Amino acid sequence: MCLTVLFAFISISGAYADYPDLVGKWKGKADAIFPDGTVLVGLAVTTEVVSQTDGLFIGSLTVKIPGLGKVTYNGTGYVGEDNMIKGVTSFHGVGTGFIDATVTISNTGKMTITGTGRDLSDGSTMYVRMKKKD
Predict the structure, then answer these.
(1) Of the candidates 77, 79, 85, 93, which lies 20 to 30 Å from 128 by C-alpha distance?
(2) Helix, strand or coil for residue 7?
């Protein structure tokens, strides 16, 4: 009986959930630090979220790195009703990193994502700030 009531509550709660709509293109800047102490500031970053079902989403993140060119990561993640994002990234199909970010929505409806990403393939950490393109 308890499980039936709990399942019904979860189902009803999910129907009324208010997840931020991340689908679309995002643009911004990032700063990164590498284990050898190299710091890169003001890197161009673009993201495209191509699909979202409730809080689950899929998309890509592209970073333009001087001397290397564009590096694109594919990713999946979850954005909660609290606007917190948790995700995993992959590069050429290999899981390589984690995302921890927050969506901020202004009183005019403009959305901004700020957060950190950790690339396990090279040990770098990146701080990202992006705005959703209209």
Answers:
(1) 93
(2) helix
Q: Kindly report the length of the chain.
A: 134
- The domain ranges of the chain are 20-132
In the block, tokens 């630090």 appear at: 33
The pLDDT score that the predictor gives to residue 95 is 67
At 100, the amino acid letter reads: D
> Which class for 132: exposed (0-12), middle (13-18), buried (19 or more C-beta within 10 A)?
buried
pLDDT single digits (tens) 15-36: 446 899 999 999 999 999 999 9
- With beta carbons less than 8 A apart as the criterion, state whether 30 and 129 touch: yes
Structural contact between residues 132 and 28, judged by C-beta atoms closer than 8 angstroms:
no
pTM: 0.82
At the top level of CATH, the class of 20-132 is: mainly beta
Q: Which distant-in-sequence residues (6+ apart) come within 8 Å of 57 by Cβ?
A: 22, 23, 49, 51, 76, 77, 78, 79
